[in-house]
Design brief:
The protein has 261 residues and is mainly alpha-helical. The protein is 80% helix and 0% strand. The chain is built from 11 helices and no strands.
């Protein structure tokens, strides 16, 4: 029998059930508007998982949900490959470096940094946005200068911390490149997959993944990611706008809970 009590305590059945629900919701909202990490990461921390293991295990889980959501955007041709192929290289590199840095940080220091970064990230994400009619064609400067800088910076953030990465990529492409919102969501998902893989490699090499706990949560996260991306493709940009707002509300709630761990 799998002994989840080693990680979740005597009442592990209920804790695991709550985590499964949290990771389903995380995958659902992350596939549409990003920001699922504001649900998944705090849920692991509140379950009593140490910060390094929580970040590494969360990264291992959400990579699968991101992959299935990415596949939906690819099959529905909502990906701009010139942007993605450049961005994914830099996001992967940035995330690997970010995760290597976080592995050098002590648990107590990392816990304090997480408490600092959560409100700062949420404040940035909650800043008012004006939605405009986006574009899908870009010049060389957009592809070979702005995209690498944006992907490298947000990739580093994803590797070091993570929550909100998808939202920041969507909003970065939308606000800076003035990309169509649905295409921005598709491109962000693939670039976020690259940063997730880069970060995950570093966490695996650092021994910071609880594989036993990750297995049931992967299934829940993938199901949420699949259903969320399907819904986004059916409903279009209007749903993405709505979910961006919903995610930011969830971010705020998670912050209030997070200060209790």
């Amino acid at each position: 029998m799998l002994d989840f009590s080693l990680y979740l305590g005597a009442q592990w059945e209920w804790v695991l059930l709550v985590l499964c629900v949290a990771f389903f919701i995380s995958g659902f909202v992350d596939s549409i508007a990003g920001g699922g990490g504001f649900i998944s990461t705090p849920s692991l921390l509140l379950a009593g998982i140490p910060p390094h293991l929580a970040l590494g295990t969360n990264k291992f889980i959400v990579v699968f949900g991101t992959a299935i959501a990415s596949w939906n955007f690819i099959t529905h041709k909502k990906v701009l490959w010139r942007i993605v192929l450049v961005g994914i290289v830099f996001s992967t590199l940035g995330a690997y470096i970010g995760s290597k840095v976080v592995l050098l940080t002590s648990d107590n220091t990392l816990k304090n940094i997480i408490l600092l970064l959560l409100p700062l990230a949420a404040l940035l994400a909650l800043m008012p946005k004006r939605f405009h009619q986006g574009r899908i064609h870009f010049c060389s400067k957009d592809i070979f200068l702005i995209t690498p800088l944006l992907s490298l910076g947000i990739g580093f953030y994803d590797g070091y911390f993570g929550p909100g990465t998808g939202s920041f990529l969507i909003l970065g492409f939308y606000a800076i490149l003035r990309m169509d919102l649905l295409y921005a969501s598709g491109c962000a998902k693939l670039i976020n997959l690259g940063s997730g893989l880069g970060s995950l490699i570093a966490f695996i090499l650092g021994g910071s993944v609880i594989y036993l706990l990750a297995l049931p949560l992967i299934a829940c996260n993938m199901l949420g990611g699949y259903l969320g991306s399907k819904l986004a493709l059916q409903k279009g940009a209007k749903l993405v706008r709505l979910m961006v707002v919903v995610v930011f509300v969830l971010m705020s709630i998670s912050l209030l809970v997070q200060y209790r761990f």
